[in-house]
């Protein structure tokens, strides 16, 4: 985790606003929180506490939080012991969805926990997955503004906010067809998270509930938002089937490119006990020795993408991955899943012009196995596409300007800090990160 240098405890301004952060679970959700916390803590203009749900889902999460508190000792930790989730109907559910549900069902305990924090909290910043539960606690119990750190693209935010209107108008409780989102246009039915087609799925129920709360938000700030190595990583939540892993390996080998490949075989890192030789073709590691590096450990992705040797990122299109790749000026080959927002995020890569998205590439159907020959072909094609490379560099320059003093992202943070001094109540201010 790349964090700024430690501020001294004396850097905290006397009487500064006290922000209480409530992240959810999953590294893709925790990373943006730690970055935002680090940026604010480095300025020393706010007092910060972070609510940590216990136990953490993965070792990566526990290590990440430990690094955050070690780097910023002035940031307070509030331990939040969740109620047991004893619900037989949820057997077999994704562990991160279960954690979100545990947090949501335990949210009524947050009021006394935050009310007892010292100094008194000025505002709450929480994850969108918890919006429908945390916003009412903040408003009705604590009388505090509640801000949502939205970690996906503006299209996904608009879709989330509009989806309850869509299901109400269609007299349904799930996704049944294309969706015409005001200000965005028509989204084909296979672009949003495909799990929304299942009305009984826990994600669908959470998504609609959070969308209803977000849709009633009072305040939304301005939405500002030489390469020879292929970096391949799909995130913990994108554990690939064995056959697809081997096709990826064969494709990388056939491409002739140097590569760094982070292999994940399970959703939760604690469960990932397989050895590389168990999942890769016999002799693969030997054949690519000196040209390809395959690992299973967590990596500092920002450091990888920032290395001048990296010329392509083959990604599942998590929003963190896309913004990091864009900021580093690295072209992308998009391979999203249908579980979350990834297909909608892939449209950002395509529309911004710094990568390629092949819509027929899928992870969810055995019949849609992507073969090695096509993987090798597309890797070489994007690596050799000068237009995509030039556009990626341009996007990287734009991102650098945005976060620099006076840039759009920097101004947005200053505007956010300015709202903390106001007594006006914002019911659900959305902090949006996006690539223009």
TrEMBL record:
Keywords: Glycosyltransferase, Transferase. SUPFAM superfamilies: UDP-Glycosyltransferase/glycogen phosphorylase. The keyword Glycosyltransferase applies. InterPro entries: UDP-glycosyltransf_plant, UDP_glucos_trans. It holds the Pfam family UDPGT. Gene3D superfamilies: Glycogen Phosphorylase B. It comes from the Eukaryota. One of its GO terms (molecular function) is UDP-glucosyltransferase activity. CDD domains: GT1_Gtf-like (cd03784). Belongs to the UDP-glycosyltransferase family. PANTHER family: GLYCOSYLTRANSFERASE, UDP-GLYCOSYLTRANSFERASE 708D1-LIKE. This is Glycosyltransferase. It comes from Triticum aestivum (Wheat).
């Amino acid at each position: 985790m790349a964090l700024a240098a430690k501020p001294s405890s004396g850097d905290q301004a006397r009487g500064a606003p006290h922000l209480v952060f409530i992240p959810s679970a999953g590294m893709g959700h925790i990373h943006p929180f730690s970055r935002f916390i680090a940026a604010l803590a480095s300025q020393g203009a706010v007092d910060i506490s972070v609510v940590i749900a216990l136990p953490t889902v993965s070792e990566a999460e526990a290590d990440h939080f430990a690094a955050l508190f070690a780097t910023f000792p002035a940031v307070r930790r509030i331990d939040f012991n969740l109620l047991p989730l004893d619900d037989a109907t949820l057997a077999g559910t994704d562990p991160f969805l279960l954690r979100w549900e545990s947090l949501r069902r335990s949210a009524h305990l947050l009021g006394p926990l935050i009310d007892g924090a010292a100094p008194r909290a000025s505002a709450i910043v929480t994850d969108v997955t918890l919006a429908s539960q945390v916003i009412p606690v903040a408003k009705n119990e604590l009388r505090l503004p509640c801000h949502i750190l939205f970690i996906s693209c503006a299209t996904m935010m608009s879709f989330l906010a509009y989806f309850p209107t869509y299901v109400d108008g269609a007299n349904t409780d799930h996704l049944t067809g294309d969706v015409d989102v005001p200000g965005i246009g028509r989204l084909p039915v296979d672009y949003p998270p495909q799990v929304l087609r299942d009305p009984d799925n826990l994600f669908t129920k959470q998504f609609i509930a959070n969308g209803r709360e977000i849709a009633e938000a009072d305040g939304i700030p301005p939405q500002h938002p030489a390469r020879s190595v292929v970096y391949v990583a799909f995130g913990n939540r994108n554990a690939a089937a064995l056959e697809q892993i081997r096709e990826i390996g064969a494709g990388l080998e056939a491409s002739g490119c140097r590569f760094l490949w982070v292999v994940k075989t399970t959703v939760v890192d604690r469960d990932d006990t397989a050895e590389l030789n168990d999942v890769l073709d016999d002799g693969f590691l030997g054949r690519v020795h000196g040209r390809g590096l395959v690992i299973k450990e967590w990596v500092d992705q920002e450091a990888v993408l920032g290395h001048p040797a990296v010329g392509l990122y083959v990604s599942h299109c998590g929003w963190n991955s896309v913004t990091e790749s864009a900021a580093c000026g690295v072209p992308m080959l998009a391979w999203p899943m249908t579980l979350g927002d990834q297909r909608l995020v892939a449209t950002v890569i395509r529309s911004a012009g710094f990568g390629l998205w092949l819509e027929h590439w899928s992870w969810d159907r055995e019949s849609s196995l992507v073969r090695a020959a096509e993987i090798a072909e597309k890797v070489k094609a994007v690596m050799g596409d000068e237009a995509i490379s030039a556009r990626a560099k341009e996007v990287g320059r734009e991102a650098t300007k945005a976060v620099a003093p006076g840039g759009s992202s920097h101004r947005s943070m200053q505007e956010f800090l300015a709202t903390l001094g106001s007594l006006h109540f914002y019911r659900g201010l959305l902090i949006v990160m996006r690539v223009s």
